[in-house]
Every structure is written in structure tokens, then in C-alpha cells.
């Protein structure tokens, strides 16, 4: 929890530091235009990719399948687009990582594996509580 709090407090400082450094290198106007362009790109990607993900989820439901993969991809697209909307270059890099299909699937598989591992640990802990000593 403390690590999350530290990252939460440190992230804006790093973003601001990087914005200032980029502004000093390429100038305020170009930095401002880059930030605005990535925000507009984030909006566009959220609209297009979100719509495509919703269509794939609907097709899965029509086939009688649970659209778990589509739902996770939709969530990653929303997170990636949201990160692109934030002003700053670190959030833009993280947003692009969430939006690229290859890295998005890698992240989804990692999250899915971690959730399965945690579920197994909780189940093992619950089984230990139920066995009489």
C-alpha cells in the first residue's frame, strides 16, 4: 500500500519534470502541441477501439460464449485511451503500451495469471482453515 501511495505521489512530479525537460529541449509550443495531439489521439482511439471491442463482445454473446477476452481488451483500451488523455509523456507511453495489440494481450495474460495464482492461494488458505487440527 505504501508503494502505491509513493507512486501516486511521485508520478505527477516525474510527469512535470519530463514536461519541463522536453519543453526546454524542443520549446514550449511544440511540447504543448504534442500534449494536445496525444490527448486527441487518446479520444479517437477510445472511440474507435471501444466500438470495435463492443462489436466483438456482442458477436461472442451471439455465439453463446462469455466475452471475457473482449471485456478485458475493452478495459485495457479504455485505460490506454485515458492515459493518453492525461497531459504528460510517461502516461502517453503507458497508454500506448495498453493500446498496442501485442502488449495489450501480454498484459492481459499477465493479469489473468496473477488473478488465477491469487485465487489458488486464497482457496488453499480457506482449505487450511476448514481442515480440523
From TrEMBL:
<keyword id="KW-0812">Transmembrane</keyword>
<dbReference type="Pfam" id="PF04186">
    <property type="entry name" value="FxsA"/>
</dbReference>
<protein>
    <submittedName>
        <fullName>Phage T7 F exclusion suppressor FxsA</fullName>
    </submittedName>
</protein>
<dbReference type="GO" id="GO:0016020">
    <property type="term" value="C:membrane"/>
</dbReference>
<dbReference type="InterPro" id="IPR007313">
    <property type="entry name" value="FxsA"/>
</dbReference>
<feature type="transmembrane region" description="Helical">
    <location>
        <begin position="75"/>
        <end position="102"/>
    </location>
</feature>
<keyword id="KW-1133">Transmembrane helix</keyword>
<keyword id="KW-0472">Membrane</keyword>
<feature type="transmembrane region" description="Helical">
    <location>
        <begin position="29"/>
        <end position="55"/>
    </location>
</feature>
